[in-house]
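Structural prep section.
Before we set up the soaks we want a predicted structure of the protein with FE2/S2 (inorganic) cluster in place, mainly to decide which crystallisation condition to try first. Input record follows.
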Amino acid sequence: MGSEVQGTQTFDKAKRAGLKFSEEAMTTVQTIISHYPDDKRKSALIPVLHIAQAEFGGWLSAETMDYVASIIKIQPIEVFEVASFYSMFHLHPVGKCVFEVCQTSSCWLMGGEDIVKYIGKKLNLKVGETTADGLFTLKVAECLGSCGTAPMLQCGASYHEKLTYEKIDKLIESYRAEGKQKNYTDLDYKNTL
Ligand code: FES
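Run finished without errors. Recording the tokens verbatim:
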């Protein structure tokens, strides 16, 4: 099957799923893509996936990945390969705030395992689960590059470091009060365009 024909079918599938970036998101996406030559559009994939994840419910469904493929003009499998490799992309529905607790050496030595247990007990969750109110998901992650401030966790674009049970209590309280989705577009993309 020619790639142009397949690209059209992918776009039709995404269209049938009713997916469409908001005007503002589409402008940002097109600006990011315009930074690369036509045959290197795939280089825009990671920032565009962050925007897609933020726009379409905090996770990347097959339809969302197809939609991204149709916009960047690459094959859906190329999107899946990247999205399934990086832990910051979620391939299943998650809560608005995803706690990714580092479990690698420094964090583990500094009590990362106890942090996971504490969050799990407090929110009544096992790793990989989401609270019934759809607000929190608990995950574990490999080294997030903040070993000097272990134990730590990441939630969206924010690092929370030198964690204590008290800090976790406050963090949960403040996210609960805010009730907003946390994602990587919390970073101001416009400053980087
Ligand atoms: S070991 Fe946890 S951030 Fe590196």
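Observations: DSSP finds eight helices and four strands in the chain.
Flagged for discussion at group meeting.
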